[in-house]
Design brief:
Blueprint: H1 6-14, E1 31-34, H2 39-55, E2 60-65, E3 74-80, H3 89-99, H4 104-117, E4 127-132, H5 138-152, E5 155-161, H6 164-176, H7 188-203, E6 212-215, H8 220-229, E7 238-241, H9 256-263, E8 280-283, E9 290-295, E10 301-304, H10 306-323, E11 332-337, H11 342-349, E12 354-357, H12 361-368, E13 373-377, E14 383-387, H13 389-397, H14 403-418, H15 426-440, H16 444-448, E15 456-461, E16 470-472, E17 477-480, H17 484-492, E18 499-504, E19 511-516, H18 520-538
Parallel strand pairs: 2-4, 4-5, 6-7, 6-8, 11-12, 11-13
Antiparallel strand pairs: 1-3, 2-3, 8-9, 9-10, 13-14, 15-19, 16-17, 18-19
The structure holds 2-acetamido-2-deoxy-1-O-phosphono-alpha-D-galactopyranose (NG1) and zinc ion.
InterPro entries: A-D-PHexomutase_a/b/a-I, A-D-PHexomutase_a/b/a-I/II/III, A-D-PHexomutase_C, A-D-PHexomutase_C_sf, A-D-PHexomutase_CS, AMG1_II, AMG1_III, PAGM
Region (Disordered): 1-20
Binding site for Mg(2+): 68, 284, 286, 288
């Protein structure tokens, strides 16, 4: 058995010391915090990714440097497993431990322990593909990552500046290259060509689509959307907005999917650009979230969020499966979280199986794998559709008995190429939505009218210790602090159509309160009153209690 290259790790690790007094955590979205504090984390992630690759016999591991929808000064990093999926949970804990080792010596000891406990054969090769978004801090962080890769002797492939979903795609494409499961050419261009050709086949013969306005959040999505639009053969005119990737401070600032969903309003920069009835969508800073919207004839903003996307897409796939003559063999299901609008859950459960899981894409992804076709979307616009390997084989082998069945089958096969099977991709999802709208001859108005959203409100509460909040039943109920859930229940009962739940955030040091009700003012009031209960139980200084918490 080979040994860890102690000297090479030691000398390079000393140039990337861990800042004292900071505790890092590999959370739902990887490591994510102020970009200026992450140098040692990136170095160590390089070493960890190398070991993870050795663990998989030299299969390629991915590393993405991004902080998604967070403000520009933040940055982060996540590790992607060989099939293009998120890092396995046990290794999230290893990554946390290694990132917090105070000194180089402690880091080396922790590495040694990891190699022994997880039985890594150090003689195996290590391969890592990595990319970053457009954040200015990304350049130096990638160079720290490269030091980590070189310290462990991993072969690195720099995929440059690209989106999170492209990086996930690359990992899967590289690891399946020249195999029967080949996922496509292992380049960004190869991916966009694949999406573009599937999209063009899906919409051929349909009415040409009206131009779509795309808010690129002043991030990497601007570059990606431009490349993608070159692969669409004019089938979907895109008007790209908020593409100022060089302007300091512009990233995600008053624009992007998170802004639109959270504020439930149009990015101010689009106010003069969007005409009533025109479709628009917003990407987030690493282009894995997508939110649609339009202005109605009175100029009022109408949101088409992840729940509306799930409803549109799931119903379409169910119809195609039926038209292809496969309804008894291919079961479509939907996965949501507690943040899904109650009206969407009602709409969907009347049509197909719906499962609710804890927040965080990995939970949705894993639950979706249990369906033949699993549609999952978070309300915030992150999601995709998974076709199980057995279902893909079934589609390939199915002999249609009528021309109509044959057409529907072809559409389904094209959907498997159009939809990213590794992780949610705003651009792939955007093409998916556009393809469905083209097939249904829907404008935003008809899509919007599938169901009417219940008014809702999401509030953050700063508490002394968010770990004091523990939940059950897919995070819909609190088990601690004791007695708080009973008080929430008591309050919720007083509101028509009221629903509210409280959970600790996995990405910020806050507790989130969600509430919905039949009337907007009631949803707001319920959210603020529940927030008040939370603050009183766990917030600390009563004089600092926010006054809106009634
Ligand atoms: P937290 O901070 O745990 O609520 C947020 C989003 C999740 C998910 C993660 C990862 C909400 C309410 N929560 O998680 O859905 O997207 O970030 O980015 O939108
Ligand atoms: Zn994102």
């Amino acid at each position: 058995m080979s040994q860890l290259p102690i000297e090479s790790i030691r000398s390079l690790s000393d140039t990337h010391p861990k800042p004292p007094h900071i505790r890092f955590q590999y959370g739902t979205a990887g490591f994510r915090t102020l970009g200026s504090t992450l140098d040692s984390v990136l170095f160590r992630v390089g070493v960890i990714a190398g070991l993870r690759s050795k663990k998989f016999d030299g299969q390629t591991i991915g590393v993405m440097v991004t902080a998604s929808h967070n403000p520009e000064q933040d940055n982060g990093v996540k590790i992607v497993d060989p099939r293009g999926e998120m890092l396995e949970a046990a290794w999230e804990a290893h990554a946390t431990t290694l990132s917090n080792a105070p000194t180089t010596n402690d880091f080396l000891e922790a590495l040694d322990a990891l190699v022994r406990t997880t039985k890594i054969d150090l003689s195996k090769p290590a391969r890592v593909v990595y990319a970053r978004d457009t954040r200015p801090s990304g350049v130096a962080l990638v160079s720290a990552l490269e030091d980590g890769l070189s310290a462990i002797g991993a072969e690195g492939r720099n995929a440059g500046v690209t989106t999170t979903p492209v990086l996930h795609y690359l990992v899967k494409a590289i690891n399946t290259k020249d195999t029967p499961e080949s996922y496509g050419e292992d380049s960004e261009d190869g991916y966009f060509q694949k999406l573009g050709s599937a999209f063009q086949s899906l919409v051929s013969g349909r009415q040409p689509l009206e131009p779509l306005l795309v808010d690129c959040a002043n991030g990497v999505g601007a570059l990606a959307a431009l490349s993608l639009s070159g692969c669409l053969g004019g089938s979907l005119p895109l008007i790209l907005e908020n593409t100022a990737i060089q302007s300091p401070g512009a990233l995600n600032n008053a624009c992007g999917a998170d802004y639109v969903k959270t504020m439930q309003r149009l990015p101010p920069s689009l106010a003069d650009r969007l005409k009533p009835g025109q479709r628009a969508c917003s990407l987030d800073g690493d282009a894995d979230r997508l939110i649609y919207y339009y202005l109605d004839e009175r100029g009022i903003f109408r949101l088409l969020d992840g729940d509306k996307i799930a409803a549109l897409v799931a119903a379409f796939i169910v119809d195609l499966v039926k038209s292809a003559g496969l309804e008894n063999e291919v079961k479509v299901g939907v996965v949501q979280t507690a943040y899904a609008n109650g009206a969407s859950t009602k709409y969907l459960s009347g049509r197909l199986p719906v499962k609710c899981v804890a927040t965080g894409v990995k939970h949705l992804h894993h639950a979706a794998e249990h369906f033949n076709v699993g549609v999952y979307f978070e309300a915030n616009g992150h999601g995709t559709v998974l076709f199980s390997p057995a279902t893909q084989a079934k589609l390939a082998a199915h002999q249609p008995s009528t021309p109509a069945q044959s057409t529907a089958l072809n559409h389904l096969m094209n959907l498997t190429r159009l939809i990213n099977q590794t992780v949610g991709d705003a651009l792939s999802d955007m093409l998916l939505v556009e393809a469905v709208l083209a097939h249904r001859s829907y404008t935003g108005v008809e899509w919007d009218s599938l169901y009417v959203d219940l008014p809702n409100r999401l509030v953050k509460v700063v508490v002394q210790d968010r770990n004091a909040f523990r939940t059950e039943n897919a995070e819909r109920r609190l088990v601690s602090p004791p007695a708080l859930q009973a008080k929430i229940d008591e309050l919720v009962r007083r509101y028509d159509g009221g629903r509210s739940f409280v959970r600790p955030s996995g990405t910020e040091d806050v507790v989130r309160v969600y509430a919905e009700a039949v009337v907007r003012s009631q949803a707001d009031e319920l959210a603020f009153r529940v927030a008040g209960l939370v603050y009183d139980v766990a917030g600390g200084d009563p004089s600092k209690r926010p006054k809106e918490f009634l």
